[in-house]
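hiii so my PI (J.) wants the whole complex modelled not just the main chain, which honestly fair. so below is everything: two entries, each one labled with what it is. i double checked the lines twice but i was tired so who knows lol
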Amino acid sequence: MNYTLNFSAVWRSFDLLLEGLALSLALAFAAIAIGCVVGLITAFGLISKNGFLRRPAGIYVTIIRNTPILVLILFTYFALPQMGVRLGKIESFIFTLAIYSGAYLAEVFRGGLLAIPPGLREAGLAIGLTNMQIRTSIITPLMLRNVLPSLGSTIISLFKDTSLAAAIAVPELTFEARKINVETFRVIETWIVASCLYVATCSILAALMRAVERRLAIVR
Amino acid sequence: MTNNLLEIRDLHKSYGAVEVLKGVDCTMQQGDVVSIIGSSGSGKTTMLRCINMLEEFQGGTIRIDGQAIGYDVVNGQRRRKSEREIARQRALTGMAFQQFNLFPHMTAVANVMLGLVKVKKMSRDEARTLAETWLDRVGLRERAEHYPGQLSGGQQQRVAIARAIAMNPKLMLFDEVTSALDPELVNEVLQVIKSLAQDGMSMLLVTHEMRFAYEVSNRVIFMNQGRIGEEGNPREMFHKPQTERLAEFLKSSTFN
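here's the output for the full assembly
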């Protein structure tokens, strides 16, 4: 192989990559924030005794988890406008990733909810708390602690899914890398640098999640 | 009407086809300490849990201070009260559980404060002062900032009792509160209960500690197969049981 690595062209465009990375993070943050709320409500629906809550929650999770995310992204961006719902590229992607992450997080949260001893809810009822107060003060904080390890890997995986926004020309990290690749022809260098940025960011996210986990660990 | 603190009339409770309470009647006055004894499966715990609606019941009435608990009768139809109303009624009683059920992510003092802040709507400062007073009362003032996982079983149970009592209930329900404890930790919990009884707290206890039931209560109820088998003052019940079943039960229990 007579290829000589030369990163200078990539370095010249490095700020573009950083801007792309910043957008990737912002997309992930917005989508996961919405996804957590959707996921939490759905998780309580999934464990509800009331079929009117449980069945729609189950249908939502089944449909979303069994559709490839790229298909969901393309559907939202190209098919929804035909049905009268017109969203910008970025809004469309955030919406899709939020709905997608909501379904995954719902399953993560459901597992955490099932691990909570029923006696704690009864103790809450016995001092006169309402079911909603029990959910907010006791069940949800404990559930989040239960699920932190798997929540971390779900968040990292959702962050990496932002690269699929390149498919609808959202200028995030992968999109910018492809642009630099096309403009400079430094194929190997561009994708090495882009990959390194993903790895570094994910490592930092993982370290942050572990720190949160340690901070919130239940004292035994 | 009456000034009974607790009045249970013809209480019926089934799990599906299995009837576990088959018409229980019971009254308590302010300041009464009543122990419920009986073999497992006799319905003791279920009866206690009906009083604060942790269990639904299908027939009969429970009144605390004259208020019908859990259900209204509207045009002859029995209807469950609203969630909010039931939550309010649950605060009339306090309950301590066999498994303590402290909230593991909160310190001892935060466990006691939660109901004071959320249900009694106290300010955090007021709630903390009151919570610390009650922790002091159960001998755990210096453990206020400890998490449940850092406390022994006996200490956890005392925190749980403080958490219930701090809510100023009219009636305390104790559900086999020493059954999950190592033998050497039983006494510290019983001492706390005894001193609360001496202060005039009305309480209804499900217990396997016959000696304790004998010493602390002014009335004992023997449950047998979903009914009250016998009731009376502890001295008569334990020394001169009227029924064959109670005599057998006492013989097989630790009381002697």
